[in-house]
Amino acid sequence: MTPRKPMERILLQALIGLLLALPARSQITDLQAINYVKSAWEITDLTDEVISQTLNTSYSGIPYKDYVSFYFVAPDILTPLQYGDYKSAGKKAADFGVEKFISSLLKQTGLSSVAAPARLAAWPIEKNLNAFYQAVVYASFKQQMALYFRAREFNSHAAIVNLQPFDLLDGVTISKSGDGWLFESLSYLYGAVPNYIPEEFFEYAEVMWQADQSRASYGQDQATVKNTFRATASPQRPVITQQPQDVIIAAGGSATFTVAVTGTGPFTYVWRFNGTVLPSETTESMTANAPGQYQVEVSNAAGVTASRIATLTVNSGESVAVTDPLPGAMLSGSVTVRANTTMASPIPTKMEFYLNGVRQYTDSTAPFAWTWNTALFPNDSYSLTAKAFNGLALVGSSAPLQATVANPERPPCADASEPNDSSTVATPLTLSAVTNGYICAASDVDWFKVTVTNAGALKLDLTVPSGLDYDLELYGPSGAWLAGSYLSSGYPEAIQETVSVPGVYFFRVYGYPLGAGGFSPTNTYTLAIVFTPPPTNNPDPGQITGNATWSGTVNLAGDITVQPGATLKILPGTLVRCRADGDSTNSGADPNRVEIILNGGVLEAIGTSISPIVFTSDAPSKQPGQWYGIRLVQGSVSLEHFVIEYAVNGLRLEDNDTRFD
To answer: 424: Cβ–Cβ under 8 A, 6 or more apart, which residues?
Structure first.
């Protein structure tokens, strides 16, 4: 490792000491540090005196005792992240109160599981600690963070920040509102996080994302410190802490093999290719392009240690290659899929990753990678491929790579509705049902469906087991997300949505976060459904001379005329049913058919994409021409998201002075 300047070491020691001296948890005692080394690191062959002396020596400019102290408290930050508890993780990190420049110094150690939590702690202080503490308690903090994490699985930080309002991100149905906050449906906005603008909050969300990613290296980083500690305390032959890995490259490319060791130096490196010594390769890494087997022997005064044999595979004739995982790998949990290319021209600007021929993710930043959560896929064999693009032009494709998902089987579950893990096997319920169920595993999702035959209000109530965080979501007949309820642990969830389109509606219950959430195979949740039809309105035919509002179901027996100075407002989701082949007023352009006439007043009929306004016939068997339509003689009219059906003329403009919005 490159020697560090003395002043950097002094700053680093002082700053990590500041971290460990804060009220959240004081620095551990000498006896606690010794016991941690003996229990957590399982170093039991050294005396307490030798351990104590070594704790006061340094690795990368930081005393071993400070590392032990940090690993003693770090789970307070990293453990909440493991369960998607962004609020607790952020608050715990902020409580540590690390000054902003400690993270950059810690990063120089190469230990991301130390540097990333330090940066997470520093960020609130850099901005405004009080503002952070005020914001973190709001539900919108959790909701925006959950959306960012979901989007970040498929998109870079830059892609999220630079997303234009109402454009969709890759791999998810998440977009931005006009004021820059994330949301998942045109009909449902989560709301802003107090004290922050979106770009500033997304900066913090990225810091938390990086801290969450660092959990994967926590064990390896601690093993690095542990191994250097042992080597310092008791000189021994080299211990290899990073083995050279198998590599797949595209034709014409090259690969770098690297080994990392601890122990007492200096070290000597001897690399072999297919068993033959490579005299020119004498450092900890080497670059190769010939297919075959590579191995390194590392020696010091205490002896020689041989690395594992790493295999270099060259995809003949392919300019794009999936390099990770390896062919035939058995996968579980979250897996990083990587692809590289040797093309110099045109230079690929993005890489698309495919699973069994279906695109899963697009990465626009090299090195190209995709984090695949295999827990959301059935245990089976899958074909992975990658396609390189320059702009919109396909410039190269990889050969298929076969890998197998082999996650642990779920424990037995007493849920009578199982299997209902997708909308295709959703459990049917009535519009007045009350049912109980279990979320039996972290990846379990329970889907249900109801059939709605007419417009009305659909209400869903979810009672959650104590201490668990379950979420509830509603989807329409087209499969589009309509609404969601995302409260914190232990709180009941509820959705009330006005539905105007008949069809099958789906809803799902899952532990938060989706795919890796809380669960209980023994404690039930309760889901209750209530459907309320809209009220029926039967206005008297004739003249509207004041202000009138229609909603629900409106039955018209004869002509309705909006006179000068009057306003007729029709609310979203309203169903206007006109008498078929009849008119009780025997008036208008057609005395035998119902007409809606604007004659100098204001007609405002503004529906929504989900709840349009429908003008139709009341006949059981509907036919074209059963009512006359809407006549715009004069006045002001605003129409949006509406349907006129089975009329003679539909919408008829009879005067060019009519103002039509």
So the answer is: none
Tell the residue number behind the tokens 């996968």, with chain if given.
331
Please give the helix or strand (H or E) that residue 660 lies within, else none: strand 659-660
Cα–Cα dist 66/225, whole Å: 11
∠ Cα 432 434 435 (to 5°):
140
Q: From CA 407, how far away is CA 378, in angstroms rounded?
A: 8
Q: Under a CB-based contact definition with an 8 Å cutoff, are residues 248 and 313 in contact?
A: yes
Distance (Å, whole) CA 619 – CA 602: 28
Residues whose CB is less than 8 angstroms from the CB of residue 581 and which lie 6 or more positions away in sequence, other chains included: 592, 593, 619, 626
Rounded-to-10 torsion of CA 29, 32, 34, 36: -140
pLDDT in tens, 535-589: 778 888 999 999 999 888 899 999 999 999 999 999 887 889 999 999 999 999 9
By C-alpha distance, which of 52, 36, 53, 78 is closest to 226? 36
Q: Closest by alpha carbon to 338, among 404, 247, 252?
A: 247
Preceding amide of 428 cis, omega within 30:
no
Rg (CA), the chain: 33
- In degrees, rounded to 5, the angle at the alpha carbon of residue 610 between the alpha carbons of residues 612 and 464 is 140
**What is the identity of the amino acid at 388?**
A
Judge contact between 566 and 601, C-beta under 8 A: yes
**350-355 and 381-390 strand pairing:** antiparallel
Side by side, the strands of the sheet bearing 368-373 are 320-324, 334-341, 368-373
Q: State the chain's mean pLDDT as an integer.
A: 84
Using H for helix, E for strand and C for coil, what is the string for 511-562?
ECCCCCCCCEEEEEEEEEEEEECCCEECCCCEEECCEEEECCEEEECCCEEE
Q: Contact, 73 vs 20, CB < 8 A?
A: yes
Q: CA 560 to CA 587: how far, in whole Å? A: 10
What would the pLDDT profile of 442-490 be if each residue is shown by its tens digit? 888 999 999 987 778 899 999 999 889 999 999 998 888 999 999 988 8
Task: Extract the tokens encoding 466.
Answer: 């104590």
Q: How far apart are CA 304 and CA 157, in angstroms?
A: 45
State the first-to-last Cα distance of the chain, in angstroms, to the nearest integer. 70
The DSSP bridge pattern shows strands 595-606 and 627-640 to be parallel
